[in-house]
User: What shape does this take?
Amino acid sequence: MNEKKHWNQIAPTYNQEIFDVFQSDSKKVLSKYFKKHANPKHQAIDFGCGNGKAFSYLSSQFKNILGIDISRKLLNQAEKLPYNNISLKQADLTKRNRLPKVDFVFCCNVAILSGVESNMAILRNIQKTLKPNGNAVVVIPSLESALFSAWRLIDWYKKENVRPEKIESSELSGFAGKKTDILQGLISIDGVITKHYTQQEIKIIFSRCGLTVSKIEKIEYAWNSEFSKPPKWMKAPFPWDWLIECSNGI
Ligand SMILES: C[S@@+](CC[C@H](N)C(=O)[O-])C[C@H]1O[C@@H](n2cnc3c(N)ncnc32)[C@H](O)[C@@H]1O
Assistant: This one.
């Protein structure tokens, strides 16, 4: 997929179409990590900043922030936000870039491309841009959560006396890909193949990219993030993304 074209096309309706992790983070886990790493003397980069949804959280916590994204149209929206310590740069984060060395990197739902190598290139770039004692917080979709949500849906149908084989295929269209794709966490979200990760895989992949993982935590969301009208009985455990806290391993 041509990421630049795709995200420029989505830009006008980005806020309606793209899931808002910050608003939906029911236990405010992200805020906890921003506070933990906050330092008014430190520089940060928001890798794949989109239209700047993280800026309201990052701006007050760091001296300055560089927002990088492949989409010029999303950066144009970010530019209009009222922060005076944020600068912006258009770049493809899967490629080699001249980036400053910083103390903190935030990267939320960007290393989610269908090309596994491209995601590793993004993670390697995070490692390269971190100062020796620098830290990163990376958010990525959970494969366990995607499988669990599918199980919840099947379970819900069973309660309504619909056997799994009678469920309309469109309901489980995320899993329509090849077996080997699904097993690699390549699951479609709204028609876009999106990389999902297992907790154990994260440890291996991040380590291969030179990143030392210190914490893997859930960012939990309400069930309406998965289903348009979830029933009242559908409660915890809730669906989630993985939050990974890591350092550059030096
Ligand atoms: C799901 S959005 C997340 C945006 C933002 N991090 C947030 O959480 O609101 C994915 C973002 O990654 C950007 N992106 C995708 N591929 C990229 C690449 N190769 N280099 C830089 N940015 C990329 C997109 O333009 C988009 O803004």
User: Anything to note?
Assistant: The pocket of S-adenosylmethionine is lined by residues 3, 7, 18, 21, 48-50, 53, 69-71, 74, 92-94, 108-110 (CB under 6 Å). The chain has a mean pLDDT of 96. The domain at 3-142+190-247 is CATH 3.40.50.150 (Rossmann fold). The CA atoms of residues 48 and 110 lie 6 Å apart.
